[in-house]
């Protein structure tokens, strides 16, 4: 499903340069549920951004579902991401003026996907049956996170990228969210790559990948 080869991302400011991500060889099979772990600053979020095509690496190849993500231009990457990838961002990125139901349904609409009934069903499955008409400001942080999970899954993606999907929840709610995420992913046979700092979350997935290298390493 996913293969990275000799991937590196460097951020530069003037004469200063820092390695944000360095991956020699990483493979994930179709249908696997994989945790990505490592110390703060080692490039976990950057890895998700590179896999999704949001960030262009300085070198290396990234293949997702047989497609070389960076072989085509930005517009093609955007279309590929909309068709293939669901993304649970760490900051949620919910639209403040819209309800939970509208946030999920709009994601489907703009990607040419399913309709509002499917959005409502997903929200019920993540435990938000009584919050469909609530706006983000009327939801707890954990509830907003679950809206983001439903939104990421509404177009039945082949790959789900999740950046700390349980990071703002109490243990019971976190388990509920993770169980729902995995159950829904299994229904659509989606591969999961989940960034987490929580060893208990990592233990529930099929395996864990620890990013190599020194976080924030300076280069000439």
Quick take:
The protein is of the alpha/beta class and 220 residues long.
Quickly count the domains: 1
| Number of contiguous helices | 7
Which structural class should the secondary elements be placed in? alpha/beta
Number of strands: 10
Strand content: 25-35%
CATH class placement:
Alpha Beta
Output the CATH topology: Rossmann fold
Euclidean distance between termini CA atoms: 34 Å
List the secondary-structure elements in sequence, H or E. EEEHEEHEHHHEHEHEE
Average pLDDT confidence is 89
Biggest sheet strand order reads 5-4-1-2-10
Q: Identify the CATH architecture.
A: 3-Layer(aba) Sandwich
CATH superfamily: P-loop containing nucleotide triphosphate hydrolases
Tell me about the largest β-sheet. Answer: 5 strands, antiparallel
CA-atom Rg in angstroms: 17 Å
Quick one: overall form? globular
The portion of residues assigned to helices is: 25-40%
Poorly predicted runs are none
Structure write-up:
The chain has 220 residues and is an alpha/beta fold. The chain has one domain (2-219): 3-Layer(aba) Sandwich (Rossmann fold). Helix content is 35%, strand content 26%. It has helices at 44-52, 74-84, 100-110, 116-125, 141-153, 171-187, 199-204, and strands at 2-13, 16-28, 33-37, 59-64, 67-68, 85-88, 159-163, 191-195, 207-210, 218-219. It has a 5-stranded antiparallel sheet with strand order 5-4-1-2-10. A 5-stranded parallel sheet has the order 6-7-8-3-9, sandwiched between helices. β4 (59-64) and β5 (67-68) form a beta hairpin. α3 runs parallel beside α5.
């Amino acid at each position: 499903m996913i293969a990275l080869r000799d991937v590196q991302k460097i951020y530069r400011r003037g004469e200063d340069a820092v390695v944000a991500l360095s991956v020699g060889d990483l493979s994930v099979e179709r249908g696997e549920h994989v945790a990505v772990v490592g110390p703060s600053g080692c490039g976990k979020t950057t890895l998700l951004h590179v896999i999704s095509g949001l960030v262009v690496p300085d070198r290396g190849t990234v293949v997702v579902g047989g497609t070389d993500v960076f072989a085509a231009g930005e517009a093609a990457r955007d279309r590929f991401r909309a068709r293939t990838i669901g993304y649970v961002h760490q900051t949620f990125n919910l639209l403040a003026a819209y309800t939970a139901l509208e946030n999920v349904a709009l994601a489907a609409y703009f990607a040419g996907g399913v309709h509002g009934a499917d959005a409502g069903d997903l929200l019920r499955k993540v435990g938000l049956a009584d919050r469909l008409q609530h706006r983000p400001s009327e939801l707890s942080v954990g509830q907003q996170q679950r809206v983001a999970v439903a939104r990421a899954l509404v177009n039945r993606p082949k790959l789900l990228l999740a950046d700390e999907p349980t990071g703002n929840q109490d243990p019971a709610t976190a388990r509920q969210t993770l169980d729902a995420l995995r159950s829904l992913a299994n229904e659509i046979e989606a591969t999961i790559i989940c960034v987490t700092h929580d060893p208990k979350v990592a233990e529930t997935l099929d395996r864990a990948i620890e990013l190599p290298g020194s976080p924030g390493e300076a280069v000439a």
